[in-house]
Amino acid sequence: MPRLVVVSNRVAIPDASGKSSAGGLAVALREAFQRQEGLWFGWSGKVSAHPSTEPKMTDKGHVRYALMDLTATDRQEYYSGFANRALWPVMHYRIGLSEFSRADYAGYLRVNRTFARALARLIQADDLIWVHDYHLIPLAAELRVLGLANRIGYFHHIPWPAPEVIGTLPGSQDLLRAITEYDLVGVQTERDADNLRRGIIQEFDATQRTADVIVLGGRQTRVKDFPIAIDVSSFEQAACRPARHRLIQQTVASLGSRSLIIGIDRLDYSKGIPERMESFERFLISNPDQRGRVTYLQIAPTSRSEVPEYASLSRTVSETLGRINGAHGEPGWVPIHYVTSAYPRGVLAGLYRIARVGLVTPMRDGMNLVAKEYVAAQDPEDPGVLVLSKFAGAAEQLGGALIVNPNDKFEVAEAISVALHMERSERIARWRRMMDVLRRYDISWWTDAFLTELASQRKASKTRSPAPV
Q1: The pLDDT of residue 302 is above 50
Q2: For the chain, which residues make up each domain, given as ranges?
Q3: Helix (H) or strand (E) run with residue 13 in it
Q4: 132 annotated active-site
Q5: Whole-structure pTM value
Q6: What is the pLDDT confidence band of residue 137, given thresholds at 50, 70 and 90?
Q7: Among the options 133, 157, 379, 442, which is catalytic?
Q8: Catalytic residue among 104, 127, 183, 365
Q9: Which of 18, 112, 177, 198 reaches 20 to 30 Å from 222, CA-CA?
C-alpha cells in the first residue's frame, strides 16, 4: 500500500492522549492514517528568525510529522498578506476587500517553493500526495519542477468562484495553470467544480475530455466535487452524553421556558454575523409576541486579528450587538448573547442539541460543517430546525433545512418564525432526510472517495514541462 503524504498550511500533532486541537481536517485524516503509514508536512505555526530549510521531524503512532518554521516576513507575505488579504476575499466573492501586493504574492510563491524543496527530499516514488487548501495552490507545480512524478491531489476547502471573479485577482492566471499540475482537484460542490473547469478552459483554451477531466499541455487534471463531511456517529454520541459542562448547565438554567436559537462561526466576514443579527432583529420586530420568549446565542471565536478587515468586522459586530440589545432588551431578558470563546466539540454538541433553531447563514461558504454538526446533534424524537444559507455548500446536500438568502433579512426572519412554530412531525421528517445523507456520506466516505480516485489516476510523466509559477 502506498504511503499517504498530507500537506497543509498547519499541521495538527495529537497530544499525549491522541487528541488533536485542530478541527475537521485532523478528524478527516485520522482513519486514513490509522490504515496506512503516513507523513504530514506543513507549517509548525511558529515564527523564527531564520527560515527552515529542513523540517523538524517527530513521530506519533503511524504518522511522521514534518514541521517548517516561517520567518516574520514569510508569515506576513505568504499567510496574512496574499493568502488571507488577497486570495481569501476573492474566493468568497468579496472583491472589494481584496488587497493585492506584489511583494505578498512573491512571498506566497517563495514559501510554496521552500516547502516543495524540503518536502521533495522526503518523498518516496510511490507516495500519494494530498495537498490541502488555498495556501498551497502552487505546490504541485513546484514539485513537478523538481522532477516528482507522484500522483498529487489537491482539495480546496473554500468556494471556487466564477471565472469572472477569480479573474479580477492579479496572478490568477498563474494559479489556474499551476492547479492543472495536480492529477486530481477536489472541491466542495459541483458548482465549484464547474467554476474551476470553466476558468481553466476560458483562460487557456484547454480541452474538456470528459465531464470532469481537463486536458492542458498534454496532461490531464480531473476536477470533481467531494463534499467534506463529519464523523456523524461520534457527534451523535457527544450530543447524547449528560450535559455536565458548566456552560450547558448555565445556558439551560438561564433559558427557562425560552427557545434557543444558536449560531456558531469563526469570526469572519464570509459568515455574515452582523447580517444574521439584523435578521434576528427583523424577526423580533415582525413577531412582537416572541420578545422575551427566545434567546439567540452567537458563538464566534476571533481569528486573524492581525488582518485589518477582521478588526473592523469585530467592531461592526460589537456595535450591531449593542444597538439591538439596547433597543429590544428588557429587564431580565437580553435578545442576543455573544461569546468569543472557543469550546470543545462535546460542549458545542450539547448546545446544538438544546437549540430549537440552528442559524447557519454565511454569505458564502465552501461547505460549512456547523450545519452538519447541528443536524447530527439533534434529538431524533424532538429535533430542532436548521435555517441554512443557499450560499453554503451544505445546502446542496441538506434539503431538509429551510434554505434562505442571507442577504434578505425579511426572508431569514420569516424562516426563523417558521422554524420556531414547525410541528414536531415535520421537524422529524426533515431531520431524517438530512441524517440519511449525513450517514451515507460521512467523513470516512469523503477520505476514501478522494484517495481511491487519486490512486486510480495515472502517474505524471517525468519528461513533460511543468507549469511556471
Answers
A1: yes
A2: 4-229+445-456, 232-440
A3: none
A4: no
A5: 0.93
A6: very high
A7: 157
A8: 365
A9: 112
